[in-house]
């Protein structure tokens, strides 16, 4: 493949791949955060970390990683793809137009990412629940299937408004940062 052919390949999927790699490194921190946020009794971080390690070892800190990867590969990749595709139809020299496009990409990407978010939080939280209360999803696809079957499709979209708001803001900031850096 010639260099000119490589330059024509879409770059939007790099964002999804990079975010999946990044979430692999940060997932243990996210797991601890989710468990702290959902605890019923106040537990110190050290105790929580010890509890996860005692229950499942190092692998316990990666509980829900398949859902985190799924979320990043759907949410981030779709935001980048929608934005890059949309640039074909707008005046890319106009900052306001770019912000509007980023808003659309953030809304759609946020909606696409919510089911992965729901399953991620449930998988991360499962380890601290009593055995009889655990959902025991095997992986992200088992979680997606069981939630939609047992609770209905709408349950996969709990928390959509805050997730979409966050996605819109992140996408706008990313675009503005890129515009600013490009002008430097």
Number of helices: 7
- Which sequence of SSEs, written as H and E, runs from N to C? HHHHHHH
What percent of residues are in strands? under 5%
Number of strands: 0
Task: Compose a concise summary of this entry.
The protein is an all-alpha fold. The protein contains seven helices and no strands.
Characteristics of this structure?
184 residues, mainly alpha, 7 helices
Describe the structure.
With 184 residues, the chain is mostly helical. It has 7 helices and no strands. The protein has helices at residues 3-8, 12-37, 45-56, 65-86, 95-126, 140-151, 160-183. Helix 2 (12-37) packs across helix 4 (65-86), helix 5 crosses helix 6 and helix 5 (95-126) packs across helix 7. The mean pLDDT is 89.
Helix-strand layout with pairing:
Elements: H1 3-8, H2 12-37, H3 45-56, H4 65-86, H5 95-126, H6 140-151, H7 160-183
């Amino acid at each position: 493949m010639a260099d000119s052919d490589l330059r024509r390949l879409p770059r939007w999927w790099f964002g999804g791949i990079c975010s999946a790699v990044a979430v692999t490194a940060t997932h243990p921190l996210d797991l601890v955060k989710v468990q702290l946020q959902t605890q019923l009794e106040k537990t110190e971080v050290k105790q929580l970390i010890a509890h996860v390690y005692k229950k499942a070892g190092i692998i316990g800190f990666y509980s829900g990683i398949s859902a985190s990867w799924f979320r990043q590969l759907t949410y981030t990749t779709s935001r980048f793809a929608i934005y890059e595709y949309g640039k074909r139809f707008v005046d890319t020299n106009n900052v306001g137009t770019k912000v509007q496009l980023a808003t659309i990409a953030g809304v759609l990407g946020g909606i696409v990412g919510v089911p992965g978010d729901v399953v991620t939080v449930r998988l991360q939280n499962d380890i601290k629940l009593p055995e009889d209360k655990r959902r025991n999803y095997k992986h992200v696809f088992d979680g997606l299937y069981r939630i939609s079957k047992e609770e209905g499709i709408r349950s996969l979209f709990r928390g959509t408004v805050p997730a979409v708001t966050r996605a819109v803001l992140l996408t706008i900031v990313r675009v503005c940062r890129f515009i600013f850096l490009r002008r430097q």
